[in-house]
Amino acid sequence: MQRFFILMTGFFLLSGILQPCLGQENQKGKYSFELKSSTLKQALVEISKVTTYDFSYRESIVKEKKVISYSFHKASISEILKQVLRRARLNYSIKGRTIILTERKELAYYTISGIITEKESGETLIGATLFSMDKMKGTVTNNYGFYSLTLPEGECSVIASFIGFENFKKELYLEDNLRLDIQLASHTTSIEEVVVKARRKNENIETVKMSHEEMDVQTIQAMPALLGETDVMKSLQMLPGVQSSGDATANLNVRGGTYDQNLILLDDAPIYNPSHALGFFSVFNPDAIKNVEIYKGGMPAQYGDRLSSVVDIRMKDGNMKEYHGAVSLGTIASRLTLEGPLKKDKASFSLSGRYSYAGKVADNFVSLAESVDLFGKELDGYRQGNDISFYDLNLKVNYLINRNNRLFFSAYTGRDQFYLRLFDEKSSMDWGNITSTLRWNHIFNDRLFSNTTLVFSNFDYSYYLKDDIRNFEWSSDLQEFDVKSDFDYFINPENHLKFGFSVNYHRIQPGKIEPRSANSITKGFQLDENNSIEPAVYFSHQVEINENLSLQYGLRYAAFANVGPGTVYDYASEERKTVTGSTEYDKGEIQSFFQGVEPRVNLCYRIDGEQSVKASYTSTHQYLHLLSSSSLGLPTDVWYPVSKHIKPQMSDQFALGYFRNFNQNKYETSVEAYYKKMSNQIDFKDNADLFLNPQIEQEILSGDGWSYGAEFLVKKQTGRLNGWLAYTWSKTEKKIEGINQGKAFPVRYDKRHDLSAFLNYKLNDRMTLSSNFVYATGGAVTAAKGSFSYKGTLVNHYSERNGYRLPNYHRLDLSLVLKGKQRKGWESEWVFAIYNVYNRHNAYSVYTKQDEQDLATNQSYMIYMFGAVPSVSYNVKF
């Protein structure tokens, strides 16, 4: 009995020691058990039995709430409660051995973020949508495929979508921030589901962007093209508000702006001369391109440096999954593209090359024409020796370091040789671009994304005069080095903040001339080199004020300074002649300094799901001028920075638009009206001396310009027949003291009416017919009104500046794509096209020469570039 009493006493003492330990969660309070309950109240009873904790709560807050089954292994009481109570929206507190439950009244929010890519290739998708139907909130991916969407805690269903791809659906329960990378699988659409563009169906209604268009490569490649070479820049000319300065040129005139007022970016690297073959083609190989965007107004604050537009072109990243290639054999050029993984799902490359042999084609064509006496004796002496060729080479490497870091390296090089005996037997030109971009994408967290970029761009040209006496080379080059960093901060679905900075360094060698032989009478000469630096900072905030009203506002501050050694001339205000000579500046000293603040505002009011009204205001500065006596964009045009005598260009643009969709977004319509006021617009005096002039400021005058107009667009997105119809009414003028007697005059590319139509019709699974039609008012030129004899010499009497109108322009192009039979891993197609089907002789320019019959008079003639031009190409993908 005594032994039993001692054992019982020890048991109770031991129990008294252990009992407090069970209630100390942070020491040894770990529990292992399975919980199988149908209601929350039953679960609390089971937890109380296992842990010996008691619960205190109001009956109403646990009534009819359910929990799922759980299995716990060495879990603390806090871990158990967090799991069981997470969906019941209850808070808890522990007082001794009692757990007190209270209802959670505040609403918690969590963020879903990640990258959306194409499943088959690993390419990031720009503008893909992630939407929660039950929460009615959504977002889109940025230019690098990143998205961020903040939603309230609890159950939600999300759908990721991108036109041309299968939807991705997932049921989620949000109780913490979630990283969700999504791969969308492409699907083969039926003949009734052909789409023009891969983007959200009603993006034109919902987004705050206006005066903005996207164009994917499939659309560009579907358009008929000159000599079979599909072209990014010419495709953009088919949009409202975008005009061409001449027949078959790749230059853009956007809302009354000159072609140098367009910021053209290839993977963030500026392209200063986007033309091949004197503007007949652009430097962008469509096989290397992923996406094209153009802003005609309402520019986001991250863009600056140009007045009229931004053309943002992105190269393909390269297939992360498997190897692919494409070959194209055409009338004047051939292309080869290869892409694939360097390491599967880790690194990829994309390599694309194009070479044109236009000179050989011209030689063979002339020889053929002469052999059948097609043009009589007009081609004598021009049979051989033409050298018109160009090449492009694009490379991009994509390396995924980890889920939060990715590196990209892209590079482009292209060069032209141009010698056409029919054009000029004694001169030739060559020019080229080189760019490279190193980009680092970094995801700081589920809401903050950054893109840091190093950029190099180089443009150079040479002009050769092959005269036996003057035999010389004239050359020039421009280099730009940039560093910039952009940040996206997704505060919540209603607030998106974007901010960043950039520093651009420009080095310009305006020109130098060197003799090419010992017999040349030309003396070497070199203009002063110009060096400048351009720093900028910006921020932009996009906010959804309510379900109908969206606002995007931003501010950009940019400065510009000429630095380094240089010569500054002091001109008399009236005579504009050198008075005091020059002042030399030491290296690194600032010669001149300019700065400007550029506010940006976009506003969108959604009337309903099918119509909206938008307005925008954009202020921009441009610190580089292109000094050109031609509207063609010749490589011999000279870029020149602002200085003491040449002020920065400035522009203020207002735009108002109405957007309406019909028949479940199958049809889009829009009308936009705009007004743009421009200051410090430059032009040359009559008979200006431009060739290697060290005091070229004396030949330049500046004044104001303005442009206004209305743009109409009707677009069909889906179906066997798709495309668009665009019409622009516009007027652009300048007023510069010292030109045209101080009166306003139209610019060269002022065209009152501009109509463009693109139609794409899928006849069956193998045949597609496409057409372009263009109609435009003739451009304004300065032409001779008559002539008179002075001391035996005929002298032309010219009209007022740009006082003569060329005949109206119109043209129809057709193409037929015939796909080969489907083979595993192999696709082929023939493309047959005719440019200018009905052989319209559209005037390119006007010139005057002495009449061969009456030597006492001059006669004016019109030049046209192309009649009907057929082409054929063969394309293979593997």
Structure explained in plain terms:
- With 878 residues, the protein is mainly beta.
- Helix content is 8%, strand content 53%.
- It contains seven helices and 56 strands.
- The strands form 13 sheets. The chain has a 22-stranded antiparallel beta barrel. The chain has a five-stranded mixed β-sheet with strand order 14-21-22-17-18. Strands 6, 9, 12 and 13 form a four-stranded mixed β-sheet that branches.
- Strand 19 and strand 20 form a beta hairpin.
- It is elongated.
- The chain starts with a helix and ends with a strand.
- The model is unreliable at 1-27, 189-198, 368-383 and 573-588 (pLDDT under 50).
Summing up helix and strand content along with how strands pair, one would put the structural category as: mainly beta
| Terminus-to-terminus distance | 94 Å
Overall mean pLDDT score?
83
- Sheet with the most strands? 22 strands, antiparallel, barrel
**Which regions are unreliable across 5 or more consecutive residues at pLDDT < 50?**
1-27, 189-198, 368-383, 573-588
**Assembly state:** single chain
- Strand percentage: over 45%
Tally of helical segments = 7
| Radius of gyration, taken over Cα atoms and rounded to an integer in Å | 34 Å
Helix content: under 10%
What is the 3D shape? elongated
How many strands in all? 56
